[in-house]
Design a protein that fits this description.
Elements (H helix, E strand, L loop, with lengths): L1 H18 L10 H10 L4 H19 L2 E4 L3 H14 L12 E5 L27 H8 L3 E6 L14 E2 L3 E2 L15 H8 L5 E6 L5 H6 L3 E4 L19 E6 L2 H11 L7 H7 L21 E5 L8 H16 L3 E6 L5 H26 L8 H10 L6 H4 L2 H7 L6 H24 L4 E5 L4 H7 L3 E8 L5 E7 L5 H15 L10
Parallel strand pairs: 2-3, 2-6, 9-10, 9-11
Antiparallel strand pairs: 1-3, 4-5, 6-8, 7-8, 7-12, 11-13, 12-13
The protein binds 2-acetamido-2-deoxy-beta-D-glucopyranose (3 copies).
Pfam families: Amidase
Protein name: Amidase domain-containing protein
Keywords: Signal
Length: 501
Amino acid sequence: MAAPRLRVLAAVVALAAAGCGAFEFQEATVDAIQLGFRNGSLTSTALVRFYLDQIARLNPLLRAVIEVNPDALAQAARADAERQASGGRCAAGLHGVPVLLKDNIATRDRLNTTAGSLALLGSVVPRDAGVVARLRRAGAVILGKANPSEWSNFRPVESGWSARGGQTLNPYVLSASPCGSSAGPGVAAAANMAAVTLGSETDGSILCPSSSNSVVGIKPTVGLSSRSGVIPITPRQDTIGPMCRTVSDAVHVLDAIVGYDKLDAEATGAASKFIPRGGYTQFLKMDGLRGKRIGAPAVFFQGYNDFQTAVYEKHLNTMREHGATVIKDLDIATNFTDLNAQETLLMIAEFKISLNAYLSDLLRSPVRSLSDVIAFNNAHPVEERLKDFGQPDLIAAEETNGIGARERAAIRRLKEISANGLEKLMKEHQLDAIVAPNSDASSVLAVGGYPGIAVPAGYDKEGVPFAISFGGLRGYEPRLIEMAYAFEQATKVRRPPTFKR
Ligand SMILES: *[C@@H]1O[C@H](CO)[C@@H](O)[C@H](O)[C@H]1NC(C)=O
Ligand SMILES: *[C@@H]1O[C@H](CO)[C@@H](O)[C@H](O)[C@H]1NC(C)=O
Ligand SMILES: *[C@@H]1O[C@H](CO)[C@@H](O)[C@H](O)[C@H]1NC(C)=O
C-alpha cells in the first residue's frame, strides 16, 4: 500500500528539484549559471564538481578531455568568495564559469600544452596564451584541456585522434566521426562535460566538429582573438573561437576572448577596430534575420541526400519567414582545386616557420623544431600511429625553406581568389552572409581570414547531427550573430546527445 504513495512523494520531490529553486545542470547556459549564482541556487564549486563528475563518467567512452585542471576547484572557490565579497556584482560574463580549452592553447599552470602529441609532453610554456590571460582576468575557471586531432590539420583533420587523448567519439552516434581538429571541445560541449569550450580553426577545425556534434561554433575573423601562445599552423588563418551549446553562450565567450594583444600585435591591432562598443551580446536579437540578405552558393548544397536537402530547403524558408531575403543558386566563382593547392603550398611553409618559433619560445621542451618532432614520431611509431597516419604533411613542411617566390605568388593568388570570389559575390548581391551546409564553406572563409558561425540544423536518419553555417566578410560578426541567434531561436534544433551504438 505504501509503494504508490512513496512514488507520488518521489515525483513531488523530483518536481520540486526540477522546477522550484534547484539548479538544472544539464544543458545549463551561461545566463542560467549567472542567474543561479545571483539567486543562490548555484556555486561555481558545485558547477565544477558537476563537470568533473561528467568527465569522470563519460570520458572513458568519449575521450574528449586529455587533462583536468587540478586547480579547478580552488579557482571555483576563489570565484565563489569573490562573488560573495562583491555582493553578487561580479556574477556576470564568465566569472566562475568552467571553460575547457583545446590542448593547443597554452596555460602556464599545472596543465600540459601538447596539441595531443607525446612529443610536447614535459614542455613548459613561458606564459598563458593571450586568450587564457583574458579568461583568467574575467574570473573564468580553467577546467582542463580537450582532445584535438593531433597537430591540428597536420594529421587527418577529421580523425579526432591524438596520441595523448586517444580517439574522440561522437556522443550522438558513437560510430560516426566527431570531425576535427577541435573534436574534444565539440564533444565535451555537446555532452555537458564543460560549461563552454574554446577551439581553434585554420580551415574547418571549429566549424566541422561543431557541425558533427550539434553545437554552435564561432570561427572569428582572424586577429579578433589573439593567437599568442597557441600551437600554430599559420598566422594568416589561425583563429581561436568558442564551441558551445547555444549561440548566446558562444557570444559570451567571444566577448571574453577578443581584443588587442601585444604578442599578436599586427593581427589583433588590425581586427580590434571591428569590436563593437558594448560587446557582442547586443546582437542576440530574436528578429535578427529581419532585413538580412543571405546568399546560398549552389556549389555548397550539392551532393546531399533528399532528406538533408529538404531540411536545408525548409531552413532557408524559415529564414525568409523571419524577414530575410534568401538568394539561392549563386555562383561563388571560385576554383576550389586552385584554392586548395595554393592554401596547402603556403600553409606548409608557414607551419614550419610558426611551429619552430613556438617551440623555440618554450622555457623547456623535449623538441625544439619541426625536425625534432618528425624524429620523435619516427622514434615512437606505435604510440604516434605512424602506420595509420604517417606524417607526410610534417615532412612536406620540413622540406620548405621560408617564404620565397612560390609562396609570395600563392599569397597574391589567394588574395585574388578572395577578391573575385566571396568578396565580389557579397558586394554584387549586397549580402550580409552566405550560408552553407556544415563546414562546406570553410576553405573560402579560411583563406580570406573571414568569420563563420555553425548552428545545429538537424539529425540524419541515423541520428548524426548536421549544421548550417553563416559566413561573411572580415568583421561581420555582429550581423552573423544576429542571423545565427534568430535562426537558432526559430528552429531550436539542438537536443542532448543520444550515445547511440
Ligand atoms: C535560480 O535560477 C535558476 C536558473 O539559473 C533557476 O533554475 C532556479 O529555479 C532559481 N532558484 C531560485 C531559488 O530562484
Ligand atoms: C602533465 O604531464 C605530466 C607528465 O609529464 C603528468 O605527470 C601530469 O599529471 C600532467 N598534468 C596534468 C594536470 O594532468
Ligand atoms: C582550376 O585550377 C586548376 C589548378 O590550378 C587548373 O588546372 C584548372 O584548369 C582550373 N579549372 C578551371 C575551370 O579554371
